[in-house]
Every structure is written in C-alpha cells, then in structure tokens.
Amino acid sequence: MLSNLAVRDVETLVHPYTNLATFREQGPLVIERGEGIYVYDTAGKPYIEGLAGLWCTSLGFANAELVEAAREQMAKLPFSQIFAGRSHDPAIALGEKLKEIAPAAISKVFFCSSGSEANDTQVKLVWYMNNALGRPAKKKIISRIKAYHGVTIASASLTGLTANHADFDLPIANILHTACPHHYRFAEAGESEEAFATRLAAELEEMILREGPETVAAFIAEPVMGAGGVIVPPRTYFPKIQAVLERYDVMMIADEVICGFGRLGTLFGSTALDIRPDSISVAKALSSAYLPIGAVMIPERMYQAMLDESRKIGTFGHGYTYSGHPVAAAVALKTLEIYERDDIVGHAARVAVPFQRRLKALAEHPLIGEARGMGLVGALEIVADKASKAPYPTAKGVGARCTALALEEGLIVRNLGDSVALCPPLIITEAQVDDMFDRLTRALDGTRDWIA
Ligand code: PLP
C-alpha cells in the first residue's frame, strides 16, 4: 500500500533516471531530513547515505555553517545578476578561490548551476575559441564510451551511455566516443594494464588521424568515471592519452564534477590521475550540493579567443540567469573554506584506506567479479560466473535487488546495472565505514540467497 504522499507523487512527478513504468507500482522512498551521513524517511527510519546523494553531499547533511552562510546571503542579497557588467562579492570571491586552488593555470571562471551546464558550456567555448582562432574545421570533441557528462543536448552527447542517447536522437554531430579504460571488462586475454593503456592511447591516435587532426578540438574525461560504473583507469592511461593529445593540439577537458574537491583523496582528481587539464568542469561538491552551482575554469588561450569574439560580435553571447547566483556562491565559498580549515581532503585520504580495504575484501564474495575504487568512491560488480566474468541476464535485475536489500539494511547505494556504487560523504568516519560495509555485506549475502 502506497502512503498518501507516495500516491500524490506517482500522480504528479516525472522522476529522473527511473523506470517510469515499474515506478507506478512501487512508488517512491520519501526522505524527510538528514544529519551527518544519515538521511531519514517519513517513518523516521535512518539510512547511511552511501552515495552522498548523487555523489555530491560531501559535508553530509544539516551542516549548520552552510545553512548560516545561505541564510546570511539570502537576507543580504538573494539575487543579483552578473550579466552586462554587473557583479557581486560572493561571485568574485568564489572565482578567485577557484583560480587559486585549480589544478591548472586558469585565467577566468564562468559560473552555471550544474555539471551538465558546465560541460555544455565547455562544448560551446571550444567551438567559439576555434572560430576565433581561425580554424573553423577544428570542432570535434572526443569523449569515451561509458563516460557521464550530463544530460543537456551537448553534454548528453558527450555522455557515452546508451540510455542517454537511445530515442533522444543523440549524439549530435562532432561528438565522438573512444574506448573505455576498464581493464577488467575490455582488456584482451593476458593483456597487462600497461599494455591495455598503450593500446587505448594508440586507438585514440588512430581516431584522431582518421578524422583528421585539423578537425579534432578536444578530449573530455572524468579522472575516475562515476556513473559509467566507477571505472579507475590504469595508472599510465592518462599520461599516454595526454601525450597523444599534445601531438595534435587537442585540448584536455577534465570533468571534475564527481572527482573534484577531495573524492579521490586529493583536492582534484586530475592530480591523482596525472592529468594536465587545459580546462575544468566542476559542480556537485563545490557547494556540497546544498545549492546548485557549477563552474568552468577557463585557460588564458581560450579567454583571449573569447575576448576577440566579443570585440567582433559585440557581446559574449552565453550565460544563465543563475550564473554566479549570490546565495549559491556564498554557500560554495563556505564549503571551500570548511574543506581547507577542517582538512577534509586529508580526512578523506585517511578514511579511504579502510574504505578501500573493506571494498577490495569483498572481491572474495561469491557474487563479486570485481571490487574497484579509489579514494572514497568504489563499486562492486556482481557477476554470475567469476571465471568467465559472465553477467546475470539484465532482466534478472540482480544489481537492483542488492540495492533494495541494502535499503532494508538502512543503507542507500546505487546500482549501475549490476555494479553497486559507493560514494559516501567525505566526513564519514572509520567506524561508519565499517558499519556501511557490514550492511552492504548483509545485502550481498541476501542477494546471493535470493538468486539461489
Ligand atoms: N559530469 C559528471 C562526471 C557527473 O557525474 C555528472 C552528474 O552526475 C554530470 C557531469 C552532470 O551534472 P548534473 O547532473 O549536475 O547536470
């Protein structure tokens, strides 16, 4: 029996990333409040938020300082635009802070409200820049199979997942996808991680040469792929990829929307994976998700081209009503202050040790084919046969079953197909990590019993 709230939901809302057909029978889990790493449903049942919302509530729930930063700014100036030469302190201060901590030489910062908007802006800026530089053919952007870069028309095109393209008539022109660096799934028999990375870099080079380097503008990548299944590339993958990009003057865009701000135990994922980005997208943990905000960190060469276009056209014709929203910017600024003051990145790096130990130990579980992760993010891939890596039939819904059993245990995780992803708030303690994995182990055992 669905509760009154659930019935109203089913009659009213379209839920993102939901099987809209089965949802009509099952209804929603309605969450009412949160505190620390826990959220509570309408019946008062607590859950560990094992995915930090959607890989984003890095400081957990009910952080009083973030609430106060929002309240203060809301009372002082709830909105002001930054179009047409207007500005305000929170946007300026946040831009300065991002430039200071960026893992690359950044000239300017452009604000938006989400990761999708940030990546959409990246596509537009790459095209705009190459028009300004007098190379209008250099427009193609290479992404990767299984990448996740968002859902607007351009960012969904960058995304390399079938469900984001099928029947949406995507991807658009000029977006290509190269191989996914998932050794467990895509390496050839006996191929080492090193040889696999070498082959993927060679495949990228072949793609660039086939398309014509004069037509390839940029490559975009998450340091560790998130929604594609938490895929950690081989150690030498990015240096090899980066060498190819440099040979053909192809920009490296780092999508730090999940990995940015401590997730991998370093302030930015690019540092952990040896990426030297030209341009960077951030969102999510920028404000610990307390308010929607994203940003594109822009290199000088791109900014100069934007200046030239602006002179020619009369304006830089791009921007959102909520670009640099003062309340979102004030909350983001406070979030970055807390990261620094409380050494949240150092804490994440320390807790990542027991987190990865417990995660990797589950590779021994009879259902698990691969336990993979880095820092405070990981995934467990359920397989039907460990030796052949054969999956269960999709229709069996094994991953979804495990997620449902975890909910019964008071743990929110997300299954990406039959991979179960974990990405807790960065403030999680070692004892809470143990509790989380104890609950997940019981859910996995329950899944095994259900299959048998
Ligand atoms: N890029 C990455 C790496 C993401 O994980 C996401 C969202 O999960 C996005 C971009 C899109 O962000 P948003 O959902 O805020 O549009």
From TrEMBL:
CDD domains: OAT_like
UniProt entry keywords in alphabetical sequence: Aminotransferase, Pyridoxal phosphate, Transferase
Example of a GO biological process term: biotin biosynthetic process
Gene3D superfamilies: Aspartate Aminotransferase, domain 1, Type I PLP-dependent aspartate aminotransferase-like (Major domain)
Gene Ontology molecular function terms on file: adenosylmethionine-8-amino-7-oxononanoate transaminase activity; pyridoxal phosphate binding
Pfam families: Aminotran_3
InterPro entries, sorted: Aminotrans_3 (IPR005814), PyrdxlP-dep_Trfase (IPR015424), PyrdxlP-dep_Trfase_major (IPR015421), PyrdxlP-dep_Trfase_small (IPR015422)
Residues in coiled coil: none
Keyword Transmembrane helix: no
UniProt key word Ligase: no
Similarity comment: Belongs to the class-III pyridoxal-phosphate-dependent aminotransferase family.
Protein name: Aspartate aminotransferase family protein
Native organism: Chelatococcus reniformis
